[in-house]
Amino acid sequence: KKLFCVLGIESSCDDTGAAVIRSDGTILGESLASQHAIHEEFGGVVPGLAKTAHEENIDGVIRAALSNANMSMEEIDAIGVTVGPGLEICLRVGCNKGRELAMMYNKPFVGVHHLEAHILMARIPPGKYDKNDGGENRSVAPYDEVTTTSHDERAMDFPFLALLVSGGHCQILKCLGVGRYSILGGTLDDSLGEAFDKTARLLGLPVGGGGGPAVEALSAHGDPHSLALPIPMQRRKDCDFSYAGLKTSVRMAAERICVERGLESPEELPFEDKANIAASFQHVAFRHVEVRLGRAMEQVEREDGIRTLAVVGGVAANKELRRRLNSLCSDRAVSWDMHVPPPRLCTDQGAMSAWAAVERLCVGSSDLAEDQDVFARYP
Ligand code: KG4
Ligand code: ZN
């Protein structure tokens, strides 16, 4: 089978990303312009500012991805662009650019679903991207022992179960094939990434690019059992999530400690207190994941014989989550295989749009660039 190369563009939120990927999963060139510094002072992404930054960055990012790949636009075989869900005015910047290039160079075009792109990243064949990057926690199987030669080979086959945990989404899905997903659970309120971001804000940690990394780093210095926070939705025996209640419990616990210390706000708490709060939050937030995911695993194992799990989305970059879900998989009566992209490919970047387009093209599916629209909500 002949290999082909796809240029991917991603601009659904606050990062402008582009990448060139070969259809065997080799990332040939990447570039990512982060807007963290722009949104930091507002404590969240400001859509108008994000749109302007995307417009300023997009040409440079695409040029850099191509030049890192040592390729010209003529040598690219197809273009993949995130068209939803996300911030509409931001999506439009990437979509318009992708359409323009597809029409100008007469290339096949794929309008990519951002959530599908997160999920499919777990199927990039092992060892195809930087080996130093994801080795330790990538999978229960030793990845370096696997070599792949054809684009029919993927890290994992359908069907599999996916846990998608990002800033915008928190879902458990049964993945049957490219474009074929069934949602087993979603969130009733906040996503897991949002819960991390709100905890970071409460404690006055840096939130640029999401508060997750800051909360994770701080948690390593705290006692996860120091605060007794309730595990959400204990009585509901389904696979849905809810993080709004945990957010309130964390804030109340932090305020109680403030009163004990005679301080005005949680931001003023000493390092040890903040670390204990962060660690306790993270512990319970992940316990909630284990309970809901464990239930979904039981269901698909029983009904469909599925024993493969993909963990994807920004929060999948978290080492503690990777460790705990690895145990969840290996502790089962018959152990499960777990696949997690390396951390830098869990969060938003251009390779995800490029790879999702590869997968769509491999099943003979593409879109008409001329007609492509963007979708803020995209079921
Ligand atoms: O997938 P992503 O980059 O964007 C969306 O599609 O939403 O996910 C971003 C989310 C943010 O909420 C961020 O705080 C969270 O992922 N995140 C983390 C970590 N890295 C990113 N959460 C916990 N631990 C991390 N190491
Ligand atoms: Zn994302």
Automatic annotation (TrEMBL):
Family to which this protein belongs: Belongs to the KAE1 / TsaD family.
Single GO cellular component term: mitochondrion
UniProt KW keywords: Acyltransferase, Metal-binding, Mitochondrion, Transferase, tRNA processing
Domain of life per record: Eukaryota
Localization: Mitochondrion
Chief location of this protein within or outside the cell: mitochondrion
Residue intervals of the Gcp-like domain: 26-126, 153-355
Record protein name field: N(6)-L-threonylcarbamoyladenine synthase
Molecular function per GO: metal ion binding; tRNA N(6)-L-threonylcarbamoyladenine synthase activity
One GO process term, biological-process aspect: tRNA threonylcarbamoyladenosine modification
Catalytic activity: L-threonylcarbamoyladenylate + adenosine(37) in tRNA = N(6)-L-threonylcarbamoyladenosine(37) in tRNA + AMP + H(+)
Shown stretch of the complete protein: 178 to 556 of 699
The EC number(s) this enzyme carries: 2.3.1.234
Purpose of the protein: Required for the formation of a threonylcarbamoyl group on adenosine at position 37 (t(6)A37) in mitochondrial tRNAs that read codons beginning with adenine. Probably involved in the transfer of the threonylcarbamoyl moiety of threonylcarbamoyl-AMP (TC-AMP) to the N6 group of A37. Involved in mitochondrial genome maintenance.
